[in-house]
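Open question from group meeting: does this chain pack into something compact, or does most of it stay loose? Before anyone orders reagents, we agreed to write out a predicted structure and look at it together. Recording both the input and the output here so the notebook holds the full record.
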Amino acid sequence: SGQTREAVTTDRAANETATATADTNSETNVTGGQYYSDDQGNWYYKDSSGKNLVGEQTIDGQNVYFRSNGQQVKGPLLDRNNNLFRYYDVDTGQLWTNRYLESQGNWYYLGKDGYPLTGEQTINGQEVYFDYKGVQIKGDFSGEDYSYPDQTFYYDSNSGARVRKEGLVQNKKGQTFYIKNDGSKFTGIREIDGNIYYFKAREAASPVDTGVLQKGISILLEEGQNSPRTYGFGTPTNITRRYYFDSVTGQAVKNRYVQENDGWYYYGADGNAIRPQDGEVNIDGQIVYLYANGRQAKGELVLDNGVLRYYDPNSGARVSNTTLTINGMTYRFDENGVGMDAPNPNGYYSDDNGNWYYKNANGDNLTGAQIINGQKLFFRDNGQQVKGAYGDSYGDLYAFYDINSGNLVTNRYVEYMGNWFYVGKDGKPVKGARNIDGQDVFFNYRGVQAKGGFGQDGVYMPEYYYDKDNGRKVTKAGFVKDNRGLTYYLDEKGNKVLGLHEINGDLYYFRRGGAYKYTQLGDMWQDSINYIDGKIYYFGHDGRAIKNRFYQWGNYWYYFYADGSAATGAVQINGQQLYFDKNHGRQVKGAFAPDGHYYDENSGELVTNQTRTIKGVTYHFDENGNATKV
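Structure tokens returned:
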């Protein structure tokens, strides 16, 4: 059976909403009410009129809450998303305030009004953090996965206090980070107890997992840099270090070979694979060949300073005292591993069209890449030797071979299908921003040099203009024109000027980019009426804004002030009362304007003190231009 108990009350009548927020009805004194319970142990409060109270109430000085059916809340009150809204004592029903609460494995702090606190807080002298639901962060970082590393902080897994000490920590996912002495994430490479680790740099395109210890990957570092370039931030050029991080420990490997996507690399005693130059080295008693980038030659013919050698495809060891046929060509290697192609004085021959071929000792035409008489050559699938450019019909260049000898061209500018390329030491076209012979130049993703146009080395990098003749980056103020005939203006650093800009006393407009902030168009507007920041401008054929005069464009007349903006509405110019359409700046002539006045069809001046017949209707215009039908 149910129970009852009396209480003296001061209550506020309220209705519980779906979001569990309290109603704000005015407070009413209620006396003579009492608590009672049902057979299920739920408590209610009936006021003196016999009505069950609902919503937020104060009874005997206690803040309590009743659901819309009158049941008293004891324990958590949840919102419609099942998140903690408030908490009421399980025994007394009193609202909890200014205290911590553990609920369903999470910790909260209920403020002075009983609502869970969110964000950064200092409680009892401790720096703590609560997410947007009010859940306290413990053993994890504040903010979101995509937060900048210096804007998210680590909180102790036990106390929840912000950690202000450098060291390794783990988040709730089990990922490892290194935090700085303010608790923020460290990014880049770091030496810890004699081992090198890499904590992921923030990537603009995919900022999740910033600061996470990386395993099973290699990175390239440029001179003086602590982190690799991420996507969209340009082409790395002056690479001085390459590290590989063990897939289990995350430590940079040392004195070890690692197989990666493009071959085998050797990481030395300092963990760095980058070497001063290509060359042979003795590793564990084997003579192997390492390129300057650390990659090992395996199953490759290597021509180094005129000396030909071959390295075993499995071990990578230098071969010696053997004869091998490689890609159709036979070579003999002496006791020092020095190779010579088998003599075949009649190997070269040409057809009636002047194309050259090479037959091996078996009489078969060679194809593909070959090394003959100390030269790197290439033969097409039909056996024709490539002399000149080797590319496709779309203008993509693969390599360039001397037009006379057919030897692979390296470290040189070459021209192909009207475009310029620069082939590097491997004979392949370079890409991105480069400094060649002391000049800053740019090659797009196909290797085509920028000349008379802009180049952007990554979507998050600035665009620069490159001279149409020599291809040098322009870093001085002035007008430039691209290959499409569009005009731009560069500032003293070579950056595009955008928007309205005054140059030598004249006003110009250079088109801003689209919604994507890294799209900077910058071409100069010409021969057009334009609406900019609520004003109307006209930019002439030379791009200069018309100023201080009337101007006819098409069938309409405009007037532009000293600042280049168009006159609109009723104005006085040179002693004449005129009117210009407020939306387009067009002068009203031979018509009634929106202000109710009529403006002369020739001069456009306000008609006053006369009678006129307009479209069959006669009007008299007074001294102010007000019209009255006659």
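Observations to bring back to the group:
The first strand starts at residue 4 and ends at 6.
The radius of gyration is 40 Å.
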